[in-house]
Amino acid sequence: MYHLTARGNERRAIYRDDHDRQRFVEKLRTLAEQHRVAVHAYVLMPNHYHLVVSTPRANLSAFMQQLNTSYTVYHNRRHRRCGHLFAGRFKARLVEGGSYLLALTRYVHLNPVKIRAARSLPVEERLSLLNAYGWSSYRSYAGLSESLAWVDHGPLKAFADVGEVEGAAVRQAYREYVEPQLVDDDTELLEALRLSSKAVGSVTFCQAAEQRQREIRDAAPGKQRWVDISRRRVEVGATEQAVTAAVVQVYSVQAGSVRGRGNCEARDVWMRLLREECGLTDRAIGRLLGHADGSTVGARLRAVERRFLEDAELRRRYAQSVQAARRIHSPKA
């Protein structure tokens, strides 16, 4: 589970109007579903955003890279600009869960009324601003709008003793949990955020997270994507056999040719499915192809991600292959 932030280059705006914000939210929803990432909370601010997510497949970097890259391509085209939109790599902190997860969702949701311009407003106006703000998951949590089906409201389970998670009583309890912070600050959470740049949680949790990162860094010198190096095969959506059968079905090719050099797109889709649907690492996929490691697979899949941004037909065929793989893997589903 992670708290993620990304800021505009030179702290400049990353959204110019509601059309930009809507497109970002659409990309967030689509890519979260595609990568099987659970979005627990989000907020869009003028020059940055916050996300709280969990990644059963340990594929955070792939998800975030595609989210930021695809939005940058859209933004640059629409506004006739070029160059970087975001200031470097996104920031990710591991989250302990429990009370820290609940407090973090509140912190994220309160962002629109914690900026300098809003702090000087009367409490009633700040509450109205919070309740009306449409570019976060707060209204969905608080029962002020239709519940967002693609947002995982798991943190609301903390209030389950007052009713069903989707019920009005729980949503009211969450509002009562958030609204006092319009005046006060959550000093305990703020202290936890200052404690470590790598994690949000207790002292023991933060120390363990930082020690784990040091171990990973020492084991793979120069590798920066430490969040991806741990366990990847955590959740398995389909078997290798189901993925192969799906690609054969969608592309009308022989099973043996999927691993060969004949149909490049079929092979690319097959490799991407193995990573995203089966949870295989690039190294494991490389071994299936007879490679010594996963470097060739990784390079190829990065090229495929770039094609995904431009090629609607590729995205359509990939979606067909995903559905076919899941149907073959779980025929009763």
Please provide a written account of the structure.
With 333 residues, the protein is of the alpha+beta class. It has two domains: 2-182, 2-Layer Sandwich (Alpha-Beta Plaits), CATH 3.30.70; 240-329, Orthogonal Bundle (Chromosomal Replication Initiator Protein Dnaa, Chain: A), CATH 1.10.1750. The chain has 15 helices and five strands. It has a five-stranded mixed beta sheet with strand order 2-3-1-4-5, with helices on both faces. Strand 2 (38-44) and strand 3 (48-54) form a beta hairpin. Helix 1 runs antiparallel to helix 2 (60-78), helix 11 (240-251) crosses helix 15 (312-329) and helix 13 (282-288) crosses helix 14. The longest helix is centred in the N-terminal third of the chain and has 19 residues, at 60-78. The radius of gyration is 21 Å and the shape is globular. The model is unreliable at 226-234 (pLDDT under 50).
Which terms would index this structure?
333 residues, alpha+beta, Alpha-Beta Plaits, Chromosomal Replication Initiator Protein Dnaa, Chain: A, five-stranded mixed sheet, 15 helices
What's the helix and strand layout?
Blueprint: E1 2-7, H1 18-35, E2 38-44, E3 48-54, H2 60-78, E4 91-95, H3 99-109, H4 111-114, H5 116-119, H6 123-132, H7 138-142, H8 168-178, H9 187-195, E5 199-200, H10 203-219, H11 240-251, H12 264-276, H13 282-288, H14 295-310, H15 312-329
Parallel strand pairs: 4-5
Antiparallel strand pairs: 1-3, 1-4, 2-3
Instruction: Give the uncertain stretches in residue-range form.
Output: 226-234
Radius of gyration: 21 Å
User: What is the CATH level 1 assignment of the largest domain?
Assistant: Alpha Beta
Helix content bin? 40-55%
Strand order of the largest sheet: 2-3-1-4-5
Shape: globular
